[in-house]
Amino acid sequence: MLKNNSTSIEISRNNKNIYWKNTLFVIFDKGSTTIGLALLFIIMSIITTDFLSVDNLVNVMRQSAVLCIMAVAMTFIIITGGIDLSAGSQLAVSGVAVSGLIAAGVPIPLAILITIIIGGLIGLFMGTVISTQNIPPFIVTLAMLTILSGIAFVYTEGTPIVVSNALFREIGRGFIGPIPTAIVIMIIVAIIGHLLLSHTRFGRYVYTIGDNEEAARLCGINVKLVKTGVYAFGGAIMAIAGIVLASRLSSGSPNAGTGSELDAIAAVVLGGTNLFGGEGKISGTLMGVAIISILNNGLNLLNVSSYNQLMIKGVVILLAVWLNSIKARRKASV
Amino acid sequence: MNSPIIELKHITKSFSGVKALTDVSLTVHPGSVHALVGENGAGKSTLMKILTGAYSKSSGEIYYKGEKVENMDPKNSKKLGIHCIYQELNVANHLTVAENVFLGSQPVNKMGFIDWKQMNQAAKEIFASLQINLDPKQMAKDVSIAQKQMIEIARAISQDAKILIMDEPTSSLSERETEILLSLVTELKNKGVSILYISHRMDEIFKVCDTVTILRDGKYIKSLPMSEVKNVDTLVELMVNRKMESYFNKVDVPIGEPILKVQNLSKTGVLNDINFDLRTGEILGIAGLVGSGRTEIAQALFGMLKKDTGEILIDDKKVEIKGPSDAIKLGLGFVTENRKETGLVLKQTVRDNISLPNLRKYTNKLFINKTVEKKESEDYKKKLNIKARSIEQTISTLSGGNQQKAIISRWMIQEPRILILDEPCRGVDVGAKAEIFAQISKLAEQGVGIIMISSELAEIVGMSDRTIVMREGTIAGELEKDMITSDNILKLAFGGGISA
Ligand SMILES: Nc1ncnc2c1ncn2[C@@H]1O[C@H](COP(=O)(O)OP(=O)(O)OP(=O)(O)O)[C@@H](O)[C@H]1O
Ligand SMILES: [Mg+2]
């Protein structure tokens, strides 16, 4: 009798433990990105004097606009199970394109439109190669990284095309009311991305293809078309990012955006999107972007050298991916 | 009686607060075959995953030969000789058959490289001992689902399992392969292996099992020796807790005009001069052994298999079906035999999976109308009694049979004119089967033409208006009405003649 009692207590304690473990895990699971972001925010507020000021925070957001626009496009691509390593070069190409067009006297709206179309066509090309020739996205976009970068250098002969037009500069530096124009553009892109992904057939197909391509095909989904569409859409969005960047720099430089694809990929992964496809959200990506941007800003405020910044960012990304994989494993065996 | 090899005591398991198992106990003796039965979602697979350490239990104890096992993780359970052939098969498609058999334990030579010769030879020997006809060097992606099942069994045997769990091993096997598998089970038992056997096919349980444990809604109902179970009906009654009236709810409806005609359909090495037609309101059964070309007919109709010659006519008009999207546009629907590989979108919800081919219907202008979408998914969740906490539950966390029901709903909502069902009741329990057949019958009543491929003769006999029996890629014969009997089907399938 006594023995029985003790075992039942043992069991209930055991249960309680598991209950707590599970609850903690659920919080961690649902909100690890949010928690990370909040911690980072608090730490930066404490260890730097300038971080927590309206000016600085607006600055952080404005600087994150380009990254954020890129990351929205990257989210789509990664959810299909693909990747775009050429995003940085696409930024350079669209930057020099829009600057070149404006320098040649093309009216600004038209120059912007043409640049976005060029971006879309670049994406269309990559998407077509990827979906019809069955070459992994990794390879195709890696090749495009150097091809596009080359094109940007050849076109500019290596020197940035300076745009002195004041109107054009407004995109990256101006304000609409109290809000920086770049932030407005970023918000619009994010909203469009979210609506497409969560409320349209196209979005649903993007997830499905990233999870089970064969099932998608058998349900009548034109897998090739959707994949191509994702890269074309991505290309157009990357062009917008490139335009915003060129405007902020008042020039189109073949060096602009170099390496930024890695930040974009990192932001998407930090935001909980599955690198193998099938899962992810724009809201997560926004948080990922915030983490990277705050990290960049904070490290600058702390006068950390750029090489050290790279190392720290690398560690953060590794940590995030590691946590994600723990979550996945945990989920599989709860 | 000899002392038990495995004892599970008072096992409870909950998934985020919801109990899947409540106080379940199970005792397995060495050299016996122990059946585990229960409806879809009763907790059978979950209990087995706790035994293999794939899931951690919430509470309860596990004993191995009378000793308590504190930490049952996959490594530990493997060490104890526990091996599980899961319901959803784990075969790496891009590896060869032999590699799959020796997955994780490939024989190596002195240099540490894989010894291919030895591996292929060993695989061949295992196959021979199991009377399995499989080429070890073949790529796994090219073999049928039944053969994949055989690969898994060979893997278990190569690892010298002491306790073998088989979770619905025959759900994709035809009569003949089932026979082979069952004799294999008996053979293993005689060698002293303990087998835990999960199946929804009751006759098998009576053939090979010594003891049976019944689960219902995650609760332990009882364990008893098979000798004390009178017949299938008593067992089913214990499972579902009510009397089953009928298994096949076939309503005879007037059969209309031919809607589909297949003429001289051929594909080298697979299909040879196939001719048949399908009428509105008709249920056409396709029987035959696994590999006899049944699935290939369906695939050719759905644009997944390129035919060499032949014609397909719908409403007497010749049609070109280049891919599934063409087929769907022409009014075809297809429930494939392998839900994990070609049906389920595992990371998505039950709702997403049900609406996948129907999203066009829910879209007005640009956006998906989620209210309508949800309503329809809810409807079918009720209609087919899909056991899920809500339609927003991730489908990978549903029990196998319930996943199957979701896939079937997907195509019912699509309102096809011609519905092809390849093993529609794979892994579905007896009660739910009756439910699904009732729905299929209703579709026929509405004038849908139905092609039903099945390895379970009872299903073909019970449901079809007409039956085609396939043998080695050709139609061995066609049976109508009273001629549709198990005997006749088997005779045709094995190449014998039938007497009228
Ligand atoms: N990972 C999981 N997360 C949440 N719920 C789960 C998970 N795995 C199983 N379940 C739930 O546990 C219950 C039992 O499922 P289980 O797979 O054990 O059923 P089963 O008896 O094997 O059924 P079937 O005959 O259909 O295979 C189901 O209601 C299922 O939804
Ligand atoms: Mg199961």
TrEMBL record, chain B:
Major location category of this protein: membrane
Database matches in Gene3D superfamilies: P-loop containing nucleotide triphosphate hydrolases (3.40.50.300)
Domain of life: Bacteria
Entry keyword annotation includes Membrane: yes
Membrane topology: Peripheral membrane protein
Every ABC transporter domain range: 6-242, 248-497
Gene Ontology cellular-component annotations: plasma membrane
Single GO MF descriptor: ATP binding
InterPro entries cross-referenced by the UniProt entry: AAA+_ATPase, ABC_carbohydrate_import_ATPase, ABC_transporter-like_ATP-bd, ABC_transporter-like_CS, P-loop_NTPase
Protein name stated in the entry: D-ribose transporter ATP-binding protein
